[in-house]
UniProtKB/TrEMBL annotation:
This is Efflux RND transporter periplasmic adaptor subunit. Belongs to the membrane fusion protein (MFP) (TC 8.A.1) family. Pfam families: BSH_CzcB. Residues 35-179 form the CzcB-like barrel-sandwich hybrid domain. Residues 1-23 form the signal peptide. InterPro entries: BSH_CzcB-like, RND_pump_MFP. PANTHER family: HLYD FAMILY OF SECRETION PROTEINS, MULTIDRUG RESISTANCE PROTEIN MDTA. SUPFAM superfamilies: HlyD-like secretion proteins. It comes from Ramlibacter algicola. One of its GO terms (cellular component) is efflux pump complex. Residues 88-153 form a coiled coil. One of its GO terms (molecular function) is efflux transmembrane transporter activity. It comes from the Bacteria.
């Protein structure tokens, strides 16, 4: 083999070594998009839990109901007050009568059949009834706010799913006391599995070669099959000890067939193509 051929071979080998890390699939981990421990915002005894471990849930679905007989009664009372028409109708009728009385007294005064004092008294009565009508309207508005407040208090005793996902675990049961606060035992643990999150660690040599929104192929360990994911995060802070940086990808999972919490391999076609071009360029030198 000629020295020139050896030189070309070494150059190609060095290029492959430098880019080989980018060209080969990396280890990765498939994880849920988010994990939530569902706790109550208020303290109360659990009346019903509508889901079990492994159940699929939809965003807004009722999962847990605390005992709320007193709150439901308060809602009914507040609604009755907000819908009451008697006081408002009574004030309106009195105002209509007072207004007609003012018109009659003015006509009588114009014809000198009634004194000015009587006319003034009728006008004062009309103003009083106007104030009573305003007070009745304000009272009804306040009753509407109280009704909304009572509904909000009742709603706090109903726990709903914050997203579409799965029930990972159920820690409490009906009859248990749900305690408010982050340090208290959660009722349910939920995970979002659409989309899934793929976490990979890459060598520094790959930095700058991967772009946001680029695609990569993910192969779950033990399941086979190739699934396309999209790069959503590229870490800007490196790990100096290992000479690596992190990359996060979103993996669509609308069918829910892919599980979370398993290892995988991720291959970036763009890096493979760059490595191949670098090797060809080195071989041509």
């Amino acid at each position: 083999m000629s020295p020139r051929s050896v030189s070309r071979g070494l150059a190609a080998a060095f290029a492959a070594a430098a880019c080989g890390a980018q060209a080969n699939p990396y280890d990765c981990l498939i994880m849920p998009s988010q994990t939530v421990e569902l706790r109550s915002a208020v303290e109360g005894v659990i009346e019903k839990i509508h889901v079990q471990r492994g159940d699929r849930v939809k965003a807004g679905q009722v999962l847990v109901q605390l005992e709320s007989a007193a709150e439901r009664s308060a809602v009914q009372l507040a609604r009755s007050r907000s819908e009451a028409q008697g006081r408002l109708a009574s004030a309106q009728n009195r105002l209509d009568y007072a207004s007609k009385k003012v018109e009659r007294t003015r006509q009588l005064q114009a014809n000198a059949f009634l004194s000015a004092q009587a006319s003034d008294e009728a006008e004062a009565e009309r103003r009083i009834t106007e104030a009573e009508l305003r007070d009745a309207r304000e009272t009804r508005e306040q009753a509407a706010y109280e009704y909304q407040h009572a509904q909000n208090l009742l709603e706090r005793r109903i726990l709903r799913s914050p997203f579409d996902g799965l029930v990972l675990d159920r820690m409490l049961n009906p009859g248990d006391l749900a305690e408010a606060g982050t340090g208290r035992k959660p009722i349910l643990k939920l995970v979002q599995v659409e989309p899934l999150r793929v976490e990979a660690v890459l060598p520094l040599a790959a930095y700058g070669r991967i772009k946001l929104r680029s695609t990569a192929d993910v192969v779950p360990e033990g399941l086979g099959g190739k699934h396309q994911a999209v790069v959503t995060v590229i870490d800007q802070v490196f790990d100096s000890a290992s000479g690596t940086f992190g990359v996060r990808l979103d993996l669509p999972n609308a069918s829910g067939k892919l599980p979370a919490g398993i290892r995988c391999k991720v291959d970036f076609p763009g890096l493979r193509e760059q490595a191949a071009r670098a090797a060809r360029a080195a071989a041509d030198k």
